[in-house]
Design a protein that fits this description.
Blueprint (H helix, E strand, L loop, with lengths): L1 H28 L3 E2 L17 E6 L7 H9 L6 E7 L6 H11 L4 E6 L8 H10 L6 E4 L4 E2 L4 H9 L4 E12 L3 H24 L10 E4 H6 L12 H11 L3 E13 L4 H18 L1 H5 L6 H16 L5 H21 L5 H18 L4 E4 L2 E5 L5 E5 L3
Parallel strand pairs: 1-9, 2-3, 2-5, 3-4, 7-9
Antiparallel strand pairs: 5-8, 6-9, 7-8, 10-11, 11-12
């Protein structure tokens, strides 16, 4: 029996090692377009481009909102509007939008105060009000903490124009503040989350759809049941893509990688943020989430090493040495691909914390979001909340 157990543990360690190799292989072939490399448009300057509405759901100002929104005001695109939405007349985001309105008077930049309450998801409530103020049929939803390059819209348009596209989405690179909590979350985005999406996409059709970029036709949104269909879902972005796929349209993952500003005040805020993401993934892909421990090869093999040593002597440390070496090579690879600067110490620490958060996400039934605690049902629907929104 002991030999069988040792064999199973060794196979588990080898599977984790195999995932690491697969992630490295996928990354090797990946050709991302980063914001700082966004220097050439894929479309001719005189090409007729459809008018577009940019929807920006806002909630407060973390100090980076001006820079984030300003990047969308600098788009090399002939006709687009930016409609920002808030649900509180005293929201600090309003002053930021007004500042940009003065800086870019020629831009169709507006903000709306909406009291829509279509469900329990505060972001969807905000978007519902914003959508009512949008003029155009081509829609692009983007979170408030996103930074893009000047040709972002032009880069995305060719794939969005394909009639088989339901929703076009992008991955994002974490740019962290100097504190440890922010650097941990950015490292988890860059080294764990982003590669896992690429691996999943390589193994099958893309099912990822993220709030950093969600572009679609208004007719597609209406056909899938409108924003109201997402109003009680924690994973509103995932379900937007999923419902579009039910219409026979694809969720396309663009090569363009936007930036997200990561500013976590302390470890507790970071942990709540990461746990909400984990619980979101668990709600939409429960089986895939349970198997996701393979995407943490170093901490997983570290935990298995004592049992491997018992059965194989010092030979049981070989898998740990191999996975550690590969993890360091992989770290350099992902930092090169993303032009990121996460240190290997932060990356390894983020791996171990990430595995614990994955484990917690298996059992968590509440998430913290915008100052409130939401219950999450087995189907991913948001229940009652405590605290202010």
């Amino acid at each position: 029996m002991d030999e069988i157990l040792q064999g199973l543990l060794f196979l588990l360690a080898m599977a984790a090692l195999g995932y690491q190799l697969l992630a490295m292989w996928v990354l090797r072939a990946w050709r991302p377009v980063l914001t700082e490399a966004d220097g050439v448009s894929l479309l001719a300057a005189d090409e007729t481009l459809p008018a577009l509405s940019l929807l920006k759901p806002l909630h407060g100002d973390d100090g980076h909102l001006y820079a984030c929104l300003r990047s969308f005001c600098l788009q090399d695109y002939p006709c687009y509007e930016i409609v920002a939405g808030v649900q509180d007349a005293d929201d600090a985001a309003i002053a930021v939008v007004q500042r940009l309105q003065r800086e870019f008077p020629e831009l169709d930049l507006r903000w709306v105060l909406t009291e829509e309450k279509t469900g329990r998801n505060p972001k969807v409530n905000n978007l519902t009000g914003i959508l009512g103020a949008c003029k155009y049929d081509l829609l692009l939803i983007s979170d408030a903490d996103i930074v893009v390059g000047p040709h972002y819209l032009r880069q995305l348009l060719p794939q969005l124009a394909d009639p088989h596209t339901g929703v076009l989405t992008c991955l994002y690179r974490g740019l962290a503040e100097a504190n440890l909590a922010s650097r941990l979350l950015a490292s988890q985005i860059n080294s764990l989350f982003l590669p896992s999406v690429l691996v999943s996409t390589r193994l099958g059709p893309n099912i990822f759809c993220g709030g950093a970029t969600m572009a679609l036709q208004r007719s597609t949104l209406q056909a899938l049941g409108g924003l109201q269909r997402l109003a009680d879902q924690l994973a509103d972005d995932y379900w937007l893509g999923a419902h579009a796929r039910q219409l026979g349209k694809a969720t396309i993952l663009a090569d363009y990688v936007v930036d997200t500003r990561v500013q976590e005040a302390n470890f507790r805020v970071f942990y709540q943020h990461a746990l909400r993401w984990a619980r979101t993934t668990h709600s939409v892909q429960p089986m895939g989430y349970r198997l996701a421990f393979f995407s943490y090869p170093l901490p997983l093999v570290t935990l298995l090493t004592p049992w491997l040593l018992l059965g194989s002597g010092w030979g049981g440390i070989i898998p740990l040495g191999m996975v550690l070496l590969l993890r360091l090579v992989y770290h350099r690879q992902i930092m090169h691909k993303l032009s990121a600067t996460d240190t290997w110490v932060i990356a390894l620490l983020a791996d171990f914390v990430g595995l614990w958060i994955w484990f917690h996400g298996l059992f968590a039934r509440q998430v913290a979001w915008r100052g409130a605690q939401f219950k999450v049902g087995a189907d991913g629907r948001l229940g009652g909340q405590d605290g202010a929104r």
